[in-house]
Specification:
The chain is built from 10 helices and no strands. It is an all-alpha fold and about 240 residues long.
């Protein structure tokens, strides 16, 4: 925190905030860090749970088991045909009591709605990406699993799922970056993410355009850094 303090103080001067008694540097730092925490929490949780669900959907699609295959296909097509904002508002406005009962939440439901909506939505995209990776597995590896006497579950757990993830790694990372960028829409629920904290600081200081510009630059820099990491990991894979 002490290392970043001079940077925040220069940022305060850049944004031309005259009433520093109303919006102090400490409060600015807290709002921005809380916004970043919300953004990354949604991104990481949706990435983890979305991937687990996507693996199950991918298995249902590739095994072509009657019933499960149709369910997975309907799930994927439904979520891929809906705007994310509709899914988010749907969980917040239509199904809050269901989530309260299922998750045992008695207080604010907004964060839970965001986490569930993003996880379910991203799972549909991750599933199709993984299915492409599965289809890229050489037939020889599939035949080898049968020759070794692997069960279907063993084949998927030991060979197919790791190979599908490896084959899909660059596209999965790109989708993860899109997920990070999409978290900005949780502002419509009143959650203070990175964008929400920037707008709130702009309203408090009377410099909304400057703070929105700052949030834009922050999203760009973080996305570029994540893309560089994705490129390096993709090259190693």
């Amino acid at each position: 925190m002490l290392f970043f303090r001079p940077l925040f103080e220069r940022g305060i001067d850049f944004f031309n905030i005259s009433d520093k008694s109303y919006i102090t540097t400490r409060k600015t730092m807290e709002l921005i860090l809380n916004g970043l925490l919300t953004t990354f929490t949604i991104t990481i949780v949706a990435l983890i749970f979305g991937m687990f669900l996507a693996i199950g959907l991918c298995m249902c699609r590739t095994l072509e088991i009657p019933g499960l295959n149709q369910f997975a296909k309907a799930y994927i097509n439904t979520f891929r045909s809906l705007p994310l904002v509709i899914v988010l508002l749907g969980f917040y406005l239509v199904a809050p009591e269901i989530l309260r009962t299922a998750l045992g939440i008695h207080g604010d439901i907004r964060m839970a709605c965001a986490l569930v909506a993003f996880s379910l939505f991203e799972a549909a995209y991750f599933a199709e990406i993984l299915r492409s990776g599965f289809n890229a597995i050489p037939q020889g590896q599939k035949d080898a699993c049968k020759a070794l006497g692997f069960t279907t579950w063993q084949s998927y757990r030991i060979v197919f799922i790791p190979q599908a993830i490896k084959n899909s790694l660059p596209v999965l990372f790109t989708q993860a970056i899109i997920l990070f960028q999409d978290t900005s829409i949780v502002y419509i629920l009143g959650l203070t993410d990175l964008f929400g904290s920037a707008k709130k600081l702009g309203e408090m200081s009377g410099t909304i355009p400057q703070w929105i510009l700052g949030a834009t630059v922050a999203y760009m820099l973080i996305s570029i850094c994540l893309q560089r990491v994705a490129n390096k990991l993709g090259a190693r894979a």
